[in-house]
Amino acid sequence: MRYLFLAVILLTLIAAGTYVYLGGTREPTVALETTVAPVYLAGQSFQGAVTGAGFGELFRQAKDAQASLQGDLANLYLNDPETARDTVTAFIGLAVADTTRPLPAGFRYRVVPAGQRVMAARLTGVSYLLAPNKLYPAALEAVKAQKLTQRGDFYLERFGVNDASEVWVGVK
């Protein structure tokens, strides 16, 4: 019984250390902004269940294309994940600066126009595995605190170099 107790303590310490190492104790900065420049995305559209194999495959394809397209991983969600349950309408890919590069098979360009009013939540030094669970709640809480109306059809995630992550939640 004594060894079981020690094993539980050891596993708890390892889990806590991993969480801290991945940046789990950092808090995001949140600000209401209007985008000043368009965001160019290269990727693929998806509509369906997030539990399906196709959804994860699009993420893998975007990660594979990252070296040749030189962009940040970026996902544009076009429906509210809270109300849609496990079905999403999304564009999965990369935010790119150069739209003249040839795209991998199945990829296409999509533009998020400038002038979007968004609640932007940003983190640096936090793994992309933890970032969404910190960014979304912070952005949504700021929308409520400022008594704004959420658009429900615009959520942009972006995961860049040096574990720089951001989420834009569209507001009216």
Mean pLDDT: 83
Quickly count the helices: 4
- Spans of at least 5 consecutive residues with low confidence: none
Any idea what the CATH superfamily is called? Regulatory factor, effector binding domain
Distance between the termini: 58 Å
What is the 3D shape? Answer: globular
Number of domain modules:
1
Description:
This protein is an alpha+beta fold and 172 residues long. The protein has a single domain, classed as Regulatory factor, effector binding domain (Multidrug-efflux Transporter 1 Regulator Bmrr, Chain A, Alpha-Beta Barrel), CATH 3.20.80. The protein is 33% helix and 36% strand. The protein is built from four helices and eight strands, in the order αββαβαβββαββ. It has an eight-stranded antiparallel beta sheet with strand order 1-6-8-7-3-4-2-5, with helices on one face. The longest helix is centred in the N-terminal third of the chain and has 20 residues, at 2-21. The chain is globular and about 60 Å long. The mean pLDDT is 83.
Task: Describe this protein with a few key phrases.
172 residues; Multidrug-efflux Transporter 1 Regulator Bmrr, Chain A; eight-stranded antiparallel β-sheet
